Amino acid sequence: MKKEFKVIADLLPNNTRVLDVGCGDGSLMNLLKQEKNVEVRGLELNQQNVQECIHKGLPVIQGNAETELHQFPNKSFDYVVLSQTLQAFYEPEKVLRNLLRIGKSVIISIPNFGYWKVRTKLLFFGKMPVTKTLPNTWYNTPNLHMCTIKDLFNFCDEKKINIKKVVGVNEDKTSIIKKSNLEIKNLFSKVGIFLIS
Amino acid sequence: MPSLAGLFFWMNIKLENIKKLDVTKPLKLDCGKTIKDFPLAYETYGKLNNNKDNAILVFHALTGDQFVTGTNPITNKEGWWVTAVGPGKAIDTNKYFVICANVIGGCMGSLGPRNINPDTKKPYGLDFPVITIKDMVRAQETLLEHLGIKKLLCATGGSMGGMQLLQFCATFPDKTFSAIPIACSSSHSAQNIALNELARQAIMADPVWDNGNYVLKDLQPKNGLAVARMVGHISYLSEKGMQEKFGRKLQEKADYEFSFNADFQVESYLRHQGYAFVERFDANSVLYITRAMDYFDLSKQFNGGLVEAFKNQKTKFLVISFSSDWLYTTKDNKDIVIALNASGADVSYSEIITDKGHDSFLLNELQFLKTLKGFIDSMYEKFKNEKRI
Predict the structure, then answer these.
(1) What is the domain partition of chain B in residue ranges?
(2) DSSP E strands: which ranges in B102-175?
(3) Considering only CA atoms, which of B194, B197, B199, B151 is closest in space to residue B172?
């Protein structure tokens, strides 16, 4: 199981209502259901994944988060989770606004473009970085809006979005990110997980 | 070949030997009239287990009947949903107890316009009351009590079957653990009504129809009914599917005949479908059932709010649509999902990508059948657990 999912699960209180946007094959939903007894819903574009979720008895709606979040009423979920897909949307800000409208709180994880290995690849090789977290090449990546933990941090500040907690993940290690350690954590975290509202 | 009158006489004899529930409780219809002591024909497949937690109710579509799978004893043809229901199929009758009833207004043994009107001692014809989807559903609910089923594991249906299912869930919110509405809509669109009207006008334009009185003469307005069925068949296929299946291929001939015979395969197909239909279906039943579909508007029943219709739903839904279905579109089905979501119901949704149009739910559509099976099997596990607690 991905460390990231464990962190997300730890951020969630028991017995809440959670919407997992881009829920994939339902791994996170399954984990949340079992460990946190949360009531989960998923939104997923890929037909194969949708079938997989249905097979596991997980409620999932086949649809595109970019265009179909309007169907969920205001504050209809305690938490909305978006795992590593924000950077793939045409209009990430619009999607983020929608998530904040639907959920009382929102958990977003991003692959950190500020991670040192990513930085050095670009710096020393002059090529778009290909890493474990960012496995695609420039011409076939779904990621349109790559950002760093610092970028998202500043973005929330600018847009008056309340940051409740930020967790940096590097392999098995996790650490709390604050304004004071932002520079260093932005360098050493592979993934950033934001709890905002 | 027997005459049509003879054929119906023979069908009536066979209809004596099918399962029927005599519904004694009076049923007040939406039109204001009351029916009582009426027959509700049904069929079951598989066995109800001791816990009575493996029952699945299937609602049939416009021209369907209670004979879901196996051989239809009246027509001697395969059941209409043999692709999905049967031993080892997506809805596995080795595991589940499948129930299906003929809708009232139909012609496969349940009370319909061909039955004898107790007041006149003659077949009803157009004296039969206009029925609604809600009337159909309320009649079928009596069957559950008769079979001793408090709560179904699942209820499902495609097309008009899906509409009945939505109505069933709205009217009886606690009667089924899960529900799978397929390729349907929460209300008939202008285009849906227009197509049904085309079918009705075709029947009514046939002089044999005679204001529905053909039943008294033991006749059938074959030509009008066949055209009505052809209209339906066009709407069940997609443009692309039809093009791929028939194109401009000619029917067993090298060139045009320069006549109005069925030169094209597509013409031959429609004629075959149309005239095969008249041997098993009653023209007045088509009028009554299409009318019920046109009147269906779930949000109207709940003061304009579809969300209101699904309030306090405990039922777990899976809505399925087909990408090339232009009769009950993906948008129609998504509107149901949106309303269920807004009401806080537990809902899943899948759009099956296919060229086969509305008919897809009756065909061997692998992704569809897999989704159906996955959902039902997982619901069975949940239902058993819930009952144990």
Answers:
(1) 4-188+300-388
(2) 116-117, 122-123, 152-158
(3) B151
Per the structure, the complete domain to which residue A36 belongs is given by: 3-113+143-196
Q: How much is the ipTM here?
A: 0.89
Question: How many Cα neighbours within 13 Å face the side chain of B133?
Answer: 30
- Read off the CATH number of the domain in which A26 is found: 3.40.50.150
In eight-state DSSP terms, residue B372 is H
CB contact under 8 A, B350 and A50: yes
Max Cα–Cα distance, chain A, nearest Å: 48
Pairing of strands B38-45, B97-101: antiparallel
Would you call B358 a catalytic residue per the annotation? yes
Choice among B110, B238, B358, B360 that is catalytic: B358
**Exposure b/e, B185-223, CB count within 10 A at least 16 = b:** bbbbeeebbebbebbbebbbebebbeebebbeeebbbbb
Q: Do B353 and A47 touch (CB under 8 A)?
A: yes
Contact A56/B at CB under 8 A = yes
Burial grade of A138 (CB within 10 A; 0-12, 13-18, 19 or more): exposed
What is the rounded CA–CA span in Å between residue B377 and residue B305? Answer: 32
Active site residue B325: yes
CA distance A29 to chain B (A): 14
**d(Cα A192, Cα A153) in Å, to the nearest integer?**
10
Q: What is the mean pLDDT of residues B296-300?
A: 96
**In this complex, is the C-beta atom of A45 within 8 Å of any C-beta atom belonging to chain B?**
no
Domain covering B4-188+300-388: architecture? 3-Layer(aba) Sandwich (3.40)
Predicted TM-score (pTM) of this structure: 0.94
Structure tokens at B364: 């061997």
Contact B374 A62 (CB under 8 A): no
Q: What is the pLDDT of residues A117-170, one digit of tens each?
A: 999 999 999 999 998 888 999 999 999 999 999 999 999 999 999 999 999 999
A58: in domain: yes
The verdict on residue A121 lying in a domain is no
Is the pLDDT reported for residue B388 higher than 90?
no
Question: Does residue A126 lie in a domain region?
Answer: no
Domain count along chain A = 1
